[in-house]
Every structure is written in structure tokens, then in C-alpha cells.
Amino acid sequence: MLQRQIATTGCRVSAFGLGTVKFGRNSDLKYPNSFALPDNRTIANLLAIARDHGVNLLDTAPSYGSSEERLGALLNSQRHHWVISTKVGETWSEKGSQFDFTGSAVEASITASLKRLATDYLDIVLVHSDGSDEKIINELDTLATLEKLKSKGIIRCFGISTKTITGGMLAIERCDLAMVAYNLTQQSEKPVLDYAVELNKGIFIKKALDSGNKPRHLDSKVWLQDALQFVLNHPAVTSVIMGTINPQHLKENLETINQIQQGKLLA
Ligand SMILES: NC(=O)c1ccc[n+]([C@@H]2O[C@H](COP(=O)([O-])OP(=O)(O)OC[C@H]3O[C@@H](n4cnc5c(N)ncnc54)[C@H](OP(=O)(O)O)[C@@H]3O)[C@@H](O)[C@H]2O)c1
Fold this sequence. Notes:
Blueprint: E1 3-5, E2 12-14, E3 16-19, H1 21-24, H2 40-52, E4 57-59, H3 67-75, E5 83-88, E6 90-93, E7 96-99, H4 103-116, E8 122-128, H5 133-139, H6 142-151, E9 155-161, H7 165-174, E10 177-181, H8 190-199, E11 202-206, H9 220-232, E12 239-243, H10 247-261
Parallel strand pairs: 3-4, 3-12, 4-5, 5-8, 8-9, 9-10, 10-11, 11-12
Antiparallel strand pairs: 1-2, 6-7
The structure holds NADP nicotinamide-adenine-dinucleotide phosphate (NAP).
NADP nicotinamide-adenine-dinucleotide phosphate (NAP) binds next to helix 1, helix 9, strand 12 and helix 10.
């Protein structure tokens, strides 16, 4: 699988990143179907399939329940193979989400993530925005704190998972990358992708499959190919972060991406 560098950071990631919300949390989510958390063997198998297909990128967050902790236990001896992307700003419990984007909360969150992930550095840290993108960027010390941690070598790159176009544009100016929602039914944030090309910054795509909401009339294979081809067609896209706990789905997703990259599917 092809890899691309995030901006000028030296951090190279595969075109597919494995999203891991479903590794650690199964309530208070917007997926169409309920599910049981996968056991350790299933997660280890998913990681092995991804790795065998050339994937080196994992996306997690403190708000994804036990995801970070489970990855920390399983990655162990393979830490250096993986580029780990985690987040700051949001925590979650059965009572719901809580947000704190202050510099002190960012530092405490990163210390806790390092411990849960059993590592001494984080490759990528994204601000897990609650939608107040502009306030986080313009009024708080969130990004200054991440910049400081980057200069100390504790994190290698940082960005924001944004929810607004203005926020996405500012994130492109101020950070190494932005994570944006972009798919066949949600394209309002395309200006952020265009701007990332102009400024040579990274873009991670979330919700490429619209969180699994397949239109009823579409065949699964056609839906998957169309969705991935659409997303990967934009030159800004560094990686598409897709979540699955189904090994068959993971293989289909990876094989489809490989076929697109090899030009085997018609545009
Ligand atoms: N930063 C943020 O604010 C934010 C927000 C949302 C997501 N994310 C990140 O982005 C990742 C992806 O987002 P997402 O999970 O919302 O959206 P997504 O990747 O568009 O959709 C994931 C859903 O699609 C299903 N799926 C995956 N491959 C499939 C296939 N080949 N055929 C049929 N169904 C398939 C999965 O179910 P199965 O498990 O059954 O395959 C899962 O429920 C997350 O895991 C997370 O890491 C970040």
C-alpha cells in the first residue's frame, strides 16, 4: 500500500488507517447497528490483517472507551511498526462526553495516553473538537501546548479533527494536518481539502463510508468502491481512516484501496 508523508514532518502513513472506536466503546455512538466489543484475539487478527496489507496507521482516542488501553497491551513488541494517532480534548464515560481544551488538560491527556498506549512518544495528536473549532484555535493555548510537546519530541505531528469549514481552514494554516468528514453524501468541507493541497498539509478522512449508512438500493461492493474511489480521488487525502471490527470488511476495504491505487478500478 502506498504511503504519504504528513506535510514536512517525516511522518509517513499508509493510505488506509484503521479506526478503532469499535475496539473500546459500543454505546452512545451513531452507527446504524449495535455490536459487542471484539475480544483480544479478534483485535489481534485485525491488526495482523492490516499489517500484512501494508497498513501502518492506527487512529484512537481517550474517548474511545478502552481502545487505547487495548492497543497498548496488544502492540507491545510491534510499537515501532505503527504510527499511532490519538486525540486530546474529549473524555467519555457512560454519562456522556466532557471537553477540556486548555493546555493543562492537553498535557494531562497526553501523559495518560502515553501510559495507556504503553509508549514514550505519540506519532500524531489531534484535537478532538466539539465544534468550537475557532475558539480552540484562536482563544485557547491548545495548539501552543501541542507545539511545545512537538518541540520536545513527545509528539511528532499535530492537528485538529474539525467540524467547521472555517476551523478546518485555520487548522490547515496552524497545524500539520486536519481530520475532516468527507464522503459521497457529505462534501461541505471540500474547501479544507483544497486548501491542504495548496499549503502541502495532511488530511485524514473520517466517515468515508458515512459511518456505515449504506443507501438501501446500492449493492455493497459498488457502494464500497464508489465511496473509496470518491475519497481517494482528492489529491489532499493523506489517509482514509476507516473503522471496522469485521475481518472480512477489513480485507474488502484494503483490497479495494489497493485496486484503486493500482489503477485496476475504472474512475
Ligand atoms: N475525530 C472524530 O471526531 C472522529 C469522528 C468519527 C470517527 N473518527 C475516526 O474515524 C474512524 C472511521 O469513522 P466511522 O467509524 O464513524 O465511519 P466509517 O469508517 O465511515 O464507517 C465505519 C462503519 O462502517 C462499517 N464498515 C466498514 N467497512 C465496511 C464494509 N466493507 N462493508 C460494510 N460495512 C463496513 C463498520 O462496521 P463493521 O465493524 O461491521 O465493519 C462501521 O460500523 C473511526 O473509527 C475513528 O477512528 C473520528
